[in-house]
Structures are given as C-alpha cells and as structure tokens.
Hints:
Elements: H1 4-47, E1 52-71, E2 74-86, E3 90-104, E4 107-123, H2 126-130, E5 135-137, E6 141-146, E7 152-157, E8 168-169, E9 178-183, E10 193-204, E11 207-210, E12 216-223, E13 228-232, E14 238-242, E15 245-253, H3 254-257, E16 277-281, H4 287-295, H5 298-316, H6 322-346, H7 348-371, H8 374-396, H9 401-419, H10 426-429
Parallel strand pairs: 1-11, 3-12
Antiparallel strand pairs: 1-2, 1-5, 1-6, 3-4, 4-10, 6-9, 7-10, 8-9, 11-16, 12-15, 13-16, 14-15
Helix pairs in contact: 1-4, 1-5, 1-6, 4-6, 5-6, 6-7, 7-8, 8-9
Amino acid sequence: MKSPLxxxxxxxxxxxxxxxxxxxxxxxxxxxxxxxxxEVENTLRQSTSGPQQLVGPLIAIPVTEVYYKQEDAKKxxxxxxxxxxxxxxxxxxxxxxxxQTRSIGIYDGQIWNSDLNIKAQFTTEKLAELEGETMTxxxxxxxxxxxxxRGIGAVSISKINGxxxxxxxxxxxxxxxxxxxxxxxxxxxxxxxxxxxxxxxxAGTGSFxxxxxxxxxxxxxxxNWPHPGFMGNYLPVKHEISASGFQANWKSSWFANNLAGWFxxxxxxxxxxxxxxxxxxxxxxxxxxxxxRAIKYAILLIALTFMAFFxxxxxxxxxxxxxxxxxxxxxxxxxxxxxxxxxxHVGFTPAWIIASLVGALMNGVYLQAxxxxxxxxxxxxxALLGLDVVMWFLLRSEDSALLLGSxxxxxxxxxxxxxxxxxxxxxxxxxxxxxPPASPDKDAMRIWK
Length: 449
C-alpha cells in the first residue's frame, strides 16, 4: 500500500472512471438528438402515408351459409357470413419507385412514390364449386388492399372481357384492410378466365411490400434510392445496387409459401401478418449511429493515451499530475461532443476531421507546457491523430472492426513492452529512501590543533 506505483495506477484508473460521467452524458445527448430525428420521420408519416403493403388483386365473394342445430328438440336455423377469396393463378407486379428527401429543420426524412403496373389472371371455375342449397352468394368483386389508403394516387384498369368496370373506394372485406374494390358483373364472369391489368400510383414512407397471392408471383422494382433494405420473408432472387439506385426481382409460388392457407373461409385473414416481398427505403448509418458507435471506443482511446503518458513518465522521469491526465482526458471527451454538433450540419466525415484537428490543437498547446517541449508535444499530437484515423477505419469497416481493433491493442502493448524492456519496475514500487545527514567532521569542530 506504500508503493508509489500502486497509488499511481490506482489514481489513473480513478481518472478513467471519472471520465465515464461526461461520456455517459454525451451518449445520452446522442440518443436525445436521434429521437428528434425519429420524430421528423413520424411527422412525415403522419402528414403523408406510412409503410405500404399491397394485397391482391383478389376476387372476394360474400357468402351466407345456412346450417341447423338441434336445440331442446327443436331444429334451429343459423346463418354464417364470410368472404370466400379466389386467388390469382399468376401475379406480375412491375414498379418504378422515386424517393424524395424532405427536410424539417436540420433533420431529413424520405418519402417514396411508386408507379405500379399489375397483371393478374384468375380462373372463375371455382365459383361453381361454391353453389349449393345452403349457400347464398353475393356479388363478387376484386379487392386490392394497401397499408395506408392516403397513399393511393391515380388508379386505372383496362377492360375486363371487353367491359369497363368502375373502381370504388374501400376494400369492402372484413378486417382492417384499406384499399379499393372493383365490382364484377355477370358478363365479366362469363369467361372461364379473367385477366386484369391495372396501374396504381402509391406513395408511402418506410417499407413497400407486395403479398405474393398468385399461384406463381413475380415482382420487379426499380428505384432511384441507393440504400435498399431487403427484408421480410423473401429475399430477391436477383438485385443490382449502384450509386444511382437499385433494381430487384422477387419470385415465389404456393409450393414455397403455402399462401392459399392464409385465406380460410372461417376466419378473417391477418392482413398485416401475411408473408410478403418487401424492401425498405433504408437510411444508411447516419451521424447519430456513427457517433454512438464511435463513443464506444472512447475508453480505448483514453486508456491508450494515459498508457502513453505513463510510459513517458517512466522513461523520462518527468512527473505528470493526475489533474493533467484528467484535463487531457476531458479534451478527448470533448472531441465526441464537437463531432456530434458538427455532423448535424456538415456530415460525419468532415465533422470527424474538424473535431480531430480541434482536439489536436487543444492538446498540442497544453502538452507543450506540460512536457516542456514542442517536439514531445508534436509526437503526442501525431499519435492522437493516428488513433483518430484508426478509429475512423474501425467505424467504416464493420466486417473487420474486431481484427483492426485487436491489431491496434497488440501494437500498443508491444510498444509498451519494447520501450520498457530494460526498465527496473522495482525502482518504482519502492519508496525513495532519504539519505541520513552527514555527520560533522570532528576536526572541523576544533578551534585549535
């Protein structure tokens, strides 16, 4: 407990723990600013329309089924009403998506608009299977459901079996499904096959999904957004992504998805839970995510800096006060605050460069007075800038972040081991001995000889 080395290391560990307080405060500030950005996205969603999921086209037939139960020796009649759905044999969806960035203050959000061309082919022979003495069929109609009806723009359909049909608002089915429906006439149902071709303009925010209701379904989507997020239950069979946008193609069939099982006559489908082709207008790692990721390496940066100072003290004999360690550590914490503030205005990479230079200037001027040399101060500043460069690559290369971080730690440890390989650590662990005062020369005290 009397060892100076023990108290030195304990004090430095205490300084690092103390610096956790401002680091946590900066982390909370990042979360707060990120929540403001999320509020902007919610505002855009409320002002326009939310994520969209296209369900259909489907042929819906209202069915009233009569059945009887024996109750108290009486035959009681009951009626059950439900929707019977005929799914298309083939479904082809071709879409062109245009993404726009909207700004509210310093925060951005994306709104997309898609022009969709939809082709579906049905077999009407299944209508005859529903006819019976206990069943009464209503007028069939085609259903096209969407996630948010506010995003529906222009809608047009070609003639069906030579007849022009009307488009009506509302999905017209049970459950929480928005959209449109197209009433079918007897003439339209005369043919054994019914082919539908329609165009639909649909706007939204976030994700766009298409439920592959066809026995064989295919979707092709072209967009000007270069950061797609392929999600959902099916990945595209092929896709191309470039700086100008992306193009993706999905395919599926009932053999793979068993989608016909979702449309049971006895239950209302869970429209939002049906598996779908899906893509999200994803925001690439923004300044808040990158700054939050960077602050996780703050303790590593501070520990390496303190280690460098400690080795410098050990080799030169120049003593640094814990307060000087603490001030340099606070300058390193300030780097992340400056980074966050600047990144909201100039972008993450320019903000990183400016914050690194500001931190280097502050530490360079201060360390020149502490270390009594511009040369020593310049070496430490270059080392700090080098660590900033390494950290930047750590953030940009997620796949090799562990490898790069391990290499930095290994090099730092090797440097400490190499520089102190001849140092006697016992000389630091033992308190300095005070020399006893020299005994006076007896002859010098004589006033005579």
